[in-house]
Design goal:
The protein has 369 residues and is mainly α. Helices cover 75% and strands 0% of the residues. The protein has helices spanning 5-24, 30-49, 55-65, 70-97, 104-124, 130-149, 155-184, 201-204, 208-220, 230-244, 254-286, 289-309, 314-328, 339-362. The two termini are 15 Å apart. The model has no long low-confidence stretch (mean pLDDT 84).
Length: 369
């Protein structure tokens, strides 16, 4: 099987060996690492000052938006905000106007349709817009998932918190990147690169089978609510959509690339969450929230170093940092809270199993040369 665990495990091992060599050879930009840490710290500070809930959303939004050049950071931040606002508004509207229709069958159908469309268009539109398409689908699914799994909660409030946290995190990173641009006089724009435009219509159609498989996998996640897996199903949905976004990968290679990305997500978020839980226990022992924040920012730096050490394994480093932030960033000084990290990891595992199963059963195989 072209996307077997064995093949991808070998590739991951090779990637990590190269990453370690790059770290040993000091091929990491200390400035980029410091900028990411400052962005996360600023986002956490602002979210706490404004008494926002789900402040870990602000923290990891700040982390993932940062890019080496200001124009890249600005574009990514704006697209993340726009996609989140539109997806959140659509999700809240659906939950408010059709609350009785959000039963198990309808949510499965909605997730299938929206996820299929998201997975398709996120892979065929130009680089200028695909990140916004992804976050429209992610945020819509997250809001509808919350409305279905937790009908007693105020879904408007959750939607507002999601939008506010993402804006705080994204704008914090844009601000830090702008300051860095002024102080260091880095080039504002990245070196010229071959732009990726939307493929011709006949090539677009080749992405449709993969998008439908991703949508079908996502459409099965609401069934977890039957067994009490409310948070797990939401994280599984997010996982499947996130790894399905690979616009620079040829359609025939999407199954293998998605399997590899899933494995990186699992390894990264598990190790990051595990470290975050250790930080929580240490800081409970010393009764110090300040120590928790210091350790969290140090862990964020480690994640950024891993991310920048090798392009092939960068996703693992990003997920390491995100897993850590979900466990270690709290809305108050109440310290021990590993629930989000545990649910995130379990959701990743479920998403991996669902999408891997669909790809193994139904994905088209490459023809031998």
């Amino acid at each position: 099987m072209q996307f077997s665990f064995l093949n991808q495990s070998k590739a991951i091992h090779t990637d990590l060996k190269q990453a370690w060599l790059n770290i040993k050879n000091n091929e990491i930009s200390v400035l980029d690492v410091a900028a990411s840490v400052c962005s996360v710290a600023l986002a956490i500070f602002i979210a706490h000052q404004l008494h926002f809930e789900y402040s870990m959303w602000a923290a990891f939004s700040a982390y993932v938006v940062m890019r080496p050049f200001f124009n890249q950071t600005l574009t990514r931040g704006v697209l993340r905000i726009v996609g989140t606002l539109l997806g959140g508004a659509a999700g809240v509207a659906l939950a408010l106007f059709f609350p009785r229709e959000l039963n198990l069958f309808s949510v499965c159908a909605i997730f299938f349709i929206v996820s299929s469309v998201t997975a398709y268009y996120a892979n065929v539109v130009s680089d200028q817009y695909n990140y916004a398409v992804l976050f429209f689908g992610l945020t819509f699914s997250l809001i509808v998932g919350y409305a279905f799994a937790y009908p007693q909660q105020d879904i408007v409030h959750i939607g507002w918190m999601r939008a506010a946290d993402v804006m705080v995190g994204s704008l914090s990173t844009i601000f830090v990147s702008a300051v860095l641009q002024l102080i260091v006089k880095k080039p504002a724009t990245s070196p010229p690169a071959k732009a990726r435009t939307s493929p011709p219509a006949q090539q677009d159609q080749q992405y449709l089978p993969f998008a439908l498989l991703a949508g079908l996998s996502t459409g099965l996640t609401p069934l977890l609510v039957i067994w009490g897996g409310q948070m797990i199903f939401i994280q599984a949905t997010v996982t499947i959509l996130a790894v399905s976004n690979q616009p620079r990968v040829a359609s025939i290679n999407l199954p293998a690339a998605s399997m590899k990305k899933l494995m990186y997500r699992a390894i990264g978020c598990f190790s990051g969450a595990l470290l975050g839980m250790a930080f929580n226990f240490i800081c409970v022992f010393f009764s110090s929230y300040a120590l928790l924040m210091l350790l969290t920012l140090l862990g964020t730096a480690v994640g950024k170093i891993l991310q920048d050490s090798n392009a092939e394994s960068s996703y693992m480093g990003a997920q390491f940092a995100v897993g850590l932030l979900m466990v270690s960033v709290h809305d108050s000084v109440a310290l021990l809270n590993d629930r989000f990290g545990v649910h995130r990891f379990l959701g990743v595992m479920v998403g991996l199993a669902l999408l891997a199963g669909m790809l193994a059963l139904f994905a088209p195989r490459q023809k031998p040369n």
